[in-house]
Amino acid sequence: MLSALAAAVVTVFAAGCAWCYMSEPADAQKSALLAYIVENQVTHARLLPTPSTHAFSYPTLAFLVSLDALEARSLDLARGWLFGYGGTSWRVTGLRSAAYLAQERKKAEAGIKEKLREVLEQFGHDSRRVGGVWMLTMPSYMGYEGINPLTVYYCYDSSEGGERLVWVVLEIHNTFGEKHVHVLETGVGEDEDCPPGFDHQWTFAREFHVSPFNDRLGHYRVSVNAPPAPSSSSSALSSSPPRPKVRIHLHAAPSSADANAAGLVGPLKLTATLFARRAVPLTSANLLRALARYPLALFLSFARILYHAWILHYVKRLDVFPRPDPKPAMRAWGLPLPRAVLSPTAAEGDEDEAARRRAHGGIGWQDEGPLEAYARRVVERFLARRAEELGVGVVLESGDPSMPRRVFVPSSTSPEDRLVIRYAARRFFPTLLLAPCAAHMLLVGTAEDLFRVSSEELFVRVFAGGAWPRMSWVQSLRLSLLPKRFARRPSQVPPRHPLDEGWGFLNALVVCLVHTGDILEKTVFTCLKARFVPGLEPWGRWERAAMLLRDDQ
């Protein structure tokens, strides 16, 4: 039986090779030099803490493709069935634009190179200089699009013959569906010393949550080599195929003594190295051979992550850091907004506003869930009404660039006062529903660094509870589900929550569902004997907020 199955597989493979070979266009030889199948070896090593040292290595398959050739579809194989650009369904391997860079709906389907230009512009660079671009990434396989931990874009200058590497853009994905980019410019901010075998090296602060066994502190030291530009002569590429190499060192946060010494980073904590053992042109025959050699490589990324996470947690005894909210994507997220923003016509911004919102690295957030969407609608309707009642302007600004800014102003007068609320994540909206009053909202916002306001006094005024003869049942439910300290001074809690008008029953349902989710999460972790870093448990956010309450309030 097994011999018959093996013979059938060989027959299908041989037939596929023959059909794909016959399907190749006449210019396949030229196109093959603009795309390569890269057989990588990836090595990880954890050095700190010493009792939890761990190392492993594994092979991966990746594609190194010219973005111009990819988006012109000149790299498609077997009429797009074996490899194609634009989708993953009904293809053996594929790449699609929506999986990379900007995730806003209006931008997600734009070309990858167009989105890459936009990222460079948002980081303050002149995207008109972009010429040829190599993209190093893992494709989808049999319709399965696994996690792509690291995608590297090598951007070459459009002038000077297109041979000079100008930017290296690192796009990082984590297992929570979030994305982050680092834009590294050659000759700018580079380390003085570059290790042998590499052409460029940069050291910069860590900003993105990747591993649950690390906090978000420390510095990355990234070393890369520069493959020949896509515009290089065919003879150069054919005689020496590009073999990219990337090395990432994570240094822990320095001690106070080290911090006083200029230019020092903390001790080396983690290393990760990706180097190409072999690179061959992307042709039908080469791709089929590579898939036959590594039939499961493109399926195993997530499974491998889970396996080594199990080792680190249960064998090496490392506790889990909870996922923090992504850092806001705009460098000026914490700076005052110009008064012109209170004009509804300025909600989308202009050139000055685009400069103010210049990207900081975050480009992908988790999708909005149904509870978050409901809570957002409740809050937005409430703010629209309160802007009219109080004659104030209110601005809601997200750290997620895919969430549009919302501006609420009275229709009849120009507001004298304005309240700016900047929130880091969409869970901000359900949090407002769970907190019994405005003061408690500010407490949890401070404890979790979930949101910031331009004026606490105006925030309390906008979210003041309405007059009500006695405590509503929804408000009583809220207090019963929170630490008792929140109810210690009932005179501070309004009888009715400001967001409950017209939404009492549904709000109560959301409150119960959110608390039930916390209970289930705690139960699952307890059953699995999994451990968070003490004091950082996600279900303990209200206890952490209660710690900020003073007994004399």
The best one-word shape is globular
What composes the largest sheet?
11 strands, antiparallel
Widest β-sheet, arrangement of strands: 10-11-12-13-1-2-5-7-8-9-14
Secondary structure class reads alpha+beta
Which stretches are low in confidence, meaning pLDDT under 50 for 5 or more residues running? 1-14, 344-358
Work out the strand percent.
Answer: 15-25%
Number of β-strand runs? 18
Count of discrete domains? 2
First and last CA, distance: 78 Å
Mean pLDDT reading: 86
Oligomer: single chain
Number of helices: 17
Helix content: 25-40%
* C-alpha-based Rg, rounded: 27 Å
Looking at this protein, list some descriptive labels.
alpha+beta; single chain; DUF1365; DUF1365-domain-containing protein
Description:
By secondary structure, the chain is of the alpha+beta class. The protein has two domains: 2-315, no CATH class; 339-547, no CATH class. The chain contains 17 helices and 18 strands. It has helices spanning 2-23, 28-32, 67-71, 105-108, 112-122, 234-239, 256-259, 284-293, 301-315, 351-356, 370-390, 428-434, 438-448, 456-462, 473-480, 504-527, 541-547; strands spanning 35-46, 54-66, 83-85, 93-95, 130-137, 140-141, 150-157, 165-173, 179-185, 200-205, 219-224, 245-251, 268-281, 362-364, 393-398, 406-408, 418-423, 451-453. The strands form three sheets. The chain has an eleven-stranded antiparallel β-sheet with strand order 10-11-12-13-1-2-5-7-8-9-14. Helix 11 crosses helix 12, helix 12 packs across helix 13 (438-448) and helix 13 crosses helix 17 (541-547). The radius of gyration is 27 Å and the shape is globular. Mean pLDDT is 86; it is low at 1-14 and 344-358.
